[in-house]
Write a structure and sequence with these properties.
The protein is mainly alpha-helical and about 160 residues long. The protein has 2 domains: about 55 residues; about 90 residues, no CATH class. About 55% of the residues lie in helices and about 5% in strands. The chain has 4 helices and 2 strands, in the order H-H-H-E-H-E. Helix 4 links the parallel strand 1 and strand 2. The protein is elongated.
Length: about 160
C-alpha cells in the first residue's frame, strides 16, 4: 500500500480477493444505513407532528390569554406615541396601532374596537399616485376614521 509500483498480475488477483468481503460489508452497511435513515425520517416526521400538536395546545395556556380584553385595550393605548409629542400615527403595519391588528384575531378585534387607538392620523398624498392606490388609501382612511367612533381625531397632511 505504501509504494507506487504497479502490482503484478498475481498481486492484482490477490488484491481483488482481499476486497470481496469488505465490498460486501460496505454494501450491507449502505443498505442498513438506508433502512435506518427511512426509520429516522419517519420518526422525525412523527416528532414534528407531535411537537406541532403540543405547541398549538400549549399556546392555549399562555398567560396573555388570561388578560381581559379591557386590560389589553389599555395596554394597547400605551403603545401609542405620547400625547405630548407632535407624532401622528402613520399608516404602517410596523407601528402601533396597526401592528397590534396583525398579532392574532383577538388582538385585531380588540384593537379595532378600541377608539382610543385611532386618535391621530398622518395622511401622505404623493403627487404621482395611481387611481387604484388612491382608492386603497381612501378606503384605509375611511376605516381609520370609523375606528375613532365619535372621538375627536387629529389629522396631519
Amino acid at each position: 500500500l505504501g509504494t507506487n509500483h504497479a502490482p503484478s498480475t498475481n498481486e492484482l488477483a490477490e488484491l481483488k480477493s482481499l476486497l470481496i468481503v469488505p465490498k460486501h460489508e460496505l454494501s450491507r452497511l449502505d443498505s442498513e444505513i438506508a433502512r435506518l435513515q427511512g426509520i429516522m425520517d419517519g420518526l422525525s416526521s412523527s416528532r414534528a407532528q407531535i411537537k406541532q400538536y403540543i405547541d398549538a395546545h400549549q399556546s392555549l395556556m399562555s398567560p396573555v390569554r388570561q388578560i381581559p380584553p379591557e386590560t389589553l385595550s389599555e395596554i394597547f393605548v400605551w403603545c401609542l406615541p405620547s400625547v405630548d409629542s407632535d407624532t401622528y400615527s402613520v399608516r404602517s403595519l410596523d407601528e402601533a396601532p396597526l401592528i397590534l391588528t396583525t398579532i392574532c384575531r383577538d388582538w385585531r378585534r380588540i384593537a379595532i374596537q378600541t377608539p382610543l387607538l385611532w386618535p391621530s392620523l398622518h395622511i401622505y398624498h404623493p403627487s404621482n399616485i395611481t387611481d387604484a392606490a388612491f382608492a386603497r388609501r381612501t378606503k384605509g382612511i375611511n376605516l381609520w376614521l370609523e375606528r375613532t367612533a365619535s372621538l375627536p381625531i387629529s389629522i396631519s397632511l
